[in-house]
Amino acid sequence: MTGITITGGITIEPGVFMGTSPVLMLGLDSSTYAANPTGTQQNVSGTSDNIGFFPYGWDNPVPSGFGNVTIGWTVVGHPDWVVTAVDSVSHVITITGGTFTSGDFYQFTNEYTWFDTVANRPFLLQNGASYDPGTGIGAMSFTPSAQQYAQSSTSLSDLSTWTVEVWHYYTGTNTGASPCIITEVYPGSTGNINYFMGALDSSTTNLEAGYFNGGFQITPGGYNLTADNWYQIVGTYDGKNVKLYVNNTLVGQTTASGSQPISSQGGINLMRRWDNAEYWGGKLGIVNVYKGAMRSSEVTDSWNANKTRFGL
Predict the structure, then answer these.
(1) What angle is formed at CA 271 by the lines to CA 99 and CA 123, rounded to 5 degrees?
(2) Are 159 and 301 members of one domain?
(3) Distance (Å, rounded) from C-alpha 69 to C-alpha 169?
(4) Are residues 130 and 248 in the same domain?
(5) CA–CA gap between residue 140 and residue 29 (Å, rounded)
(6) pTM of the prediction?
């Protein structure tokens, strides 16, 4: 095969890829997680169920303190009370999951939320999932027996081609037949799942990647991880083929059929199945979702950039 010469003298040699690299749409990195100091105690008045007016001591705008409360924070002592809106002009905070009582004092923290670095999308850490400093490798830790997982209440837009990449420490403690490392919440509003990575063939440990368009389009055979090890795991869909890479090696691929993937619009789960209470155990250091499929060379680039951090 010879190269193609474009008028003007530009020659494209065989094997040169002409296209754009995948675009990062969601980026979670345990190195960015930090539980900010809680705001000073505030007296709330004029509450209307989940809406509280905080007239005293509003310290805004400042880089710390009460004025730093933002969407995704929770109420100290009430990790299920999640801040959904902050009006710093009117001094009003809105929450879900609880009710403010006029005259009481409240503090706010981000201790239970892992924020996406691309769009500040909050993932609420459920049932005690938390940051674990480990042995020099800080990561978010999830215990299946305690039903620990993380969830964003919103999805990304439809990704007709995609890449999901995780840096994952596997503990071999999964529960249920089909736990997932990452998946959209099902059924959402469309009855589809844009992307997932987990076990789907009634084997708790058989790792696969793919999507659901009325039928599962998955990498065949699965891949068995070995407990107590860090892994780079990458799933891709390029518009035709679904592929699974583990530690910079292609370990499975299949040709998809039927309609292209679309979002469920139901939210995103980490370390839990798309619907039932089935959980994947271990730690997450990095979770990335891209628009577009990584080429093998780009998987290698990420492997080389991060492997030392995770002792690989």
Answers:
(1) 40
(2) yes
(3) 32
(4) yes
(5) 9
(6) 0.84
